[in-house]
Amino acid sequence: MRGRPPARPGRDDSGVASVWAATAAAVLLLTATVCVDVAAAVRARHVASTAADLSALAAAGRAVEGPDIACRVATDLAARNDAELTGCRLDGWDALVETQVRRSGLLPVHRPASARARAGPAPVTDAAGTAPRQARPTTTRK
């Protein structure tokens, strides 16, 4: 019966478990960091979208008072939702707004989340529930 061959000098496996444990801890830490950053990005996107929707509704509600007042109300509402209003205009009775949310994260790649929204009165429908045709602008010739 043969026994174990004698160990060669300098080929001791002691301490290998520590290297594996440190590697596993580093991988887990990196994974957790990426997960936290992705969650922060998703949250920022949701905040930007919510702020854009609410700001557009507020601006559309004040469209009769003019674009200055409508956009001022939209700016205030976006700020109360931790967002920045980056664009606001009225297109007839419709309000078109853009918001942006700066996000913080653990990784050095930080792009702000942005969203757009449009709000205005619903289109008029006939009794059958279909929208009537849009009237074409008339042109007169002399």
What descriptive keywords fit this protein?
single chain, 142 residues, alpha+beta, 2 helices, 16% strand
Short précis:
One of its GO terms (molecular function) is helicase activity. Keywords: ATP-binding, Helicase, Hydrolase, Membrane, Nucleotide-binding, Transmembrane, Transmembrane helix. This protein is α+β, with helices and mostly antiparallel strands.
Q: How does this model look, in words?
A:
- The chain crosses the membrane at residues 20-42.
- Residues 15-61 form the Putative Flp pilus-assembly TadG-like N-terminal domain.
- Residues 112-142 are annotated as: Disordered.
- It comes from Pseudonocardia ammonioxydans.
- One of its GO terms (molecular function) is helicase activity.
- This protein is of the alpha+beta class and 142 residues long.
- It has a domain at 23-119.
- It has two helices and three strands, in the order ααβββ.
- The protein has helices at residues 16-61, 67-80, and strands at 84-91, 94-101, 113-119.
- The protein has a three-stranded antiparallel beta sheet.
- Strand 1 and strand 2 (94-101) form a beta hairpin.
- Helix 1 (16-61) runs antiparallel to helix 2.
- The longest helix is centred in the N-terminal third of the chain and has 46 residues, at 16-61.
- The N and C termini lie far apart (117 Å).
